[in-house]
Amino acid sequence: MILLDTDVMIDLLRQYPPAVAWLDSLGSEEIILPGFVAMELIQGCRDKSEQRELERELRSYGVAWPLTAACNEALSVFANYYLSHGLGILDALIGQMAVTLNVGLCTFNQKHYSVIPNLNTLQPYEKSHQE
After folding, report:
1. Residues 6+ apart with CB under 8 A from 14
2. How far is CA 117 from CA 17, 75, 92, in A?
3. Rounded CA separation 94/79 (Å)
4. What are the DSSP calls for 70-128, one per residue?
5. Residue 2 in contact with residue 105, Cβ under 8 Å?
6. Separation CA 11–CA 14 (nearest Å)
7. How confident is the prediction along the chain (131 residues), in pLDDT tens digits per residue?
8. Backbone angles phi, psi at 104, to 5 degrees
9. Could you state, in order of their start, the residue ranges of all structural domains in the chain?
10. How far is residue 62 from each of residues 37, 85, 92, measured CA to CA in Å?
11. DSSP state of 61
């Protein structure tokens, strides 16, 4: 199982060639989106037509939500690192979900997640410096 962050999903939705090649290389690996990532993507839609297209694309991915224990741990991590490191609410929830599921989080936002204990972040493909 692989958990995707918003930035990786945006690359996939935009058909960024390295992202598409990486996804194709995964074979039957289960790809999961935290529900919060799906919500962030919907929030970025400019109109109802764009939202319908996005929702159609998202159907090919599993969507998961953190359980109560993960939310409680995310609260603790957030309380410990918000003031000192600027940890975001959604980043705490998404990161702790990955920790609780014991899976890597595919993201290029390493800085956002760096303070979450025991979180394994993965940069799934090379990004061009011109991006």
Report:
1. none
2. 32, 13, 10
3. 15
4. HHHHHHHHHHHHHHHH---HHHHHHHHHHHHHT--EE-S-HHHHTTSTT--EE--S---
5. no
6. 5
7. 999 999 999 999 999 999 999 999 998 989 999 999 999 999 999 999 999 999 999 999 999 999 999 999 999 999 999 999 999 999 999 999 999 999 999 999 999 999 999 999 999 999 876 55
8. -75, 150
9. 2-122
10. 11, 31, 20
11. S
Q: Which residue shows structure tokens 């303070």?
A: 115
Q: Which phi-psi region, left, alpha or beta, contains residue 61 (left: φ > 0; alpha: ψ -120 to 50)?
A: beta
What fold, for 2-122?
Rossmann fold (3.40.50)
